[in-house]
Specification:
Distance between the termini: 24 Å
Order of helices and strands: EHHHHEEEEHEHEHEH
Structural class: alpha/beta
Helix content: 25-40%
Number of helices: 8
Number of strands: 8
Largest sheet: 6 strands, mixed
Bound molecules: zinc ion
Strand content: 15-25%
Strand order of the largest sheet: 1-8-7-4-3-6
Radius of gyration: 20 Å
Number of domains: 1
CATH superfamily: GTP cyclohydrolase I, C-terminal domain/NADPH-dependent 7-cyano-7-deazaguanine reductase, N-terminal domain
CATH class: Alpha Beta
CATH topology: GTP Cyclohydrolase I, domain 2
Length: 238
């Protein structure tokens, strides 16, 4: 599989370059502006039920504009299904109320080597085209006295994936969250994913994958980084 390395510096701090690009260019280049997901100040004035009603109304408009007959039994429930799926499932990570609580445990075993949770399958959506991004996330940290439940690492990945995303931001958001929870810089993330907006439209490259990475603290050390990468490449023996 051909892979292209995407550098984190595509998270542009200077928006002036973006202002000079049109909507198609920004989408095709998949450029994002900020580590934080851009949210409106009044993002949570409406509750979930109100959001579902509003999205249902507008999605019906989209379908009808496309020429679809919403009287058809197969189609008539689609606006409601899509609205519910957006709010309750695939974009539920926009709501901080859905953030997994971070329960930490004492590092009783004094395990102070790196812990790698690899092959975490995730499904996200590209914020430029609203079509799926899916792949594997590999997460690692070196304990600074506290440890986190393994399923919690998975849940944190899922929480940030359930937003309209760009892969670079997803990578950094997971890393920063883990650094904050575990109170250590020693966190590494590698995400290997496929973007349907690249494989099914635009350049129609069916085989390309995008790799993004984050190496914080001790992981910036080449030996530690290589150890992490070796574990990811290791074939499971069971
Ligand atoms: Zn896209």
């Amino acid at each position: 599989m051909k892979q292209k390395e995407t550098m984190l510096n595509t998270l542009l701090k200077d928006n002036s370059i973006l202002r000079e690009m049109n909507a198609d260019e920004i989408g095709n280049e998949h450029i994002s502006t900020n580590i934080e997901t851009p949210m409106k100040k009044d993002a949570f004035v409406m509750n979930d039920e109100e959001k579902i009603k509003k999205i249902e109304f507008h999605f019906k408009e989209i379908m009808e504009t496309l020429g679809l007959d919403l009287n058809d039994d197969s189609l008539k429930g689609t606006p409601q299904r899509v609205a519910k799926m957006y709010v309750k499932e695939i974009f539920s990570g926009l709501d901080p109320a859905n953030k997994p609580s971070a329960k930490l445990f004492e590092n009783k075993y004094q395990y102070n080597q790196m812990l790698v949770e690899k092959d975490i399958t995730f499904y996200s959506n590209c914020e430029h085209h609203f079509v799926p991004i899916f792949g594997k996330a590999h997460v690692a940290y070196i304990s600074n006295g506290k440890v986190i439940g393994l399923s919690k690492l998975n849940r944190i990945v899922q929480y940030f994936a359930k937003r309209p995303q760009v892969q670079e931001r997803l990578t950094v958001q997971i890393a920063k969250e883990l650094q904050a929870i575990l109170k250590t810089d020693d966190v590494a993330i590698l995400i290997d994913a496929k973007h349907l907006c690249v494989s099914s439209r635009g350049v129609q490259d069916h085989n390309s994958a995008t790799v993004t990475s984050f190496y914080g603290g001790k992981f910036a050390n080449e030996t530690t980084k290589q150890e992490f990468l070796k574990y990811i490449e290791m074939k499971t023996q069971y």
